[in-house]
Amino acid sequence: MNYHVLKLFYYVAITGSVTKASERLHISQPAISAQIRKFERENHILLFEIKGKRMVLTPLGKRLIEPLEKFFAMGDQVQQIIEDYHKFPEGNLRIAGNYLATSILIPRWASLFKQSFPEVNIQITTTNSHGVMEKLNNFEADVAIYSDMEFPSHNTGVFEHRELYRDEYVFVVSSQHPYANQQVSFEEVMSEAFIMREEGSAARERLVRLCEERSVQQPTIGLQFNGVNEVIQAVIAGYGISYVSALLAKPYLDQGTLANVAVENVVSKHSIWMGYRKKELQESYMQSFITFVMKQLSLK
Description:
Oligomer: single chain
Protein name: HTH lysR-type domain-containing protein
Structural class: alpha/beta
InterPro entries: LysR_HTH_N (IPR000847), LysR_subst-bd (IPR005119), WH-like_DNA-bd_sf (IPR036388), WH_DNA-bd_sf (IPR036390)
Mean pLDDT: 88
CATH architecture of the largest domain: 3-Layer(aba) Sandwich
Pfam families: HTH_1, LysR_substrate
Family: Belongs to the LysR transcriptional regulatory family.
Radius of gyration: 25 Å
Domain HTH lysR-type: 1-58
CATH class of the largest domain: Alpha Beta
């Protein structure tokens, strides 16, 4: 397979013209066009067709874009790993965490680890749990901290996953809300407006599952944020209900700015996990961080 020609095709497709692809790749327009045409002839296919003055993708060409995007992204990651090896000879540790992890757990761990291993460069990325797992599976993160939920295959031939904490989700409202510190039915609480994270967050996925299990209509999402701290602040301000990690809600519940809503017959436990490549695929500094985290947990 001629990957060079596939790269030429890919850049023509995403830029929309041979001219723009030529500028991006620093290859002459005639050379790009000639190599793509030769590839089409050799494989008895057609990737582009001319419509008016525009060159558009054929159905086959469109089908190739997504796998090629992933393929070239992997190549970029390989290049980044090599560059990081030269830039950071002692290690470049990439940690991806969901909002709970990067709000409460990872900052302390990263700070303490950096004091013991100052030569390791640490990069921390925050996204929802689905995004965290994608980064791990795509080798865009070395360590992933996330909440358990229904994920695609964890690729257990390459990765290991370890439970760190057991937590639960709780319904919370402003201390001035009529449901504050009250016991209500699941149907009653679902009739209220909710403030939630975006689709793909573990808490929202769990809430949807609870509704499906009870054949109850999902609540109206009155406000949606991409961060859990924003969700909590909006609830404190007095609008709606939310469903969040008890670990995140605890400081606000202790202060009295948030209040629990006891929902009948709903107990929603969940775990916080750490995922990483198997030991034989890790650099030594990655092993050191994983060992460090487990030691910190054992001290609690």
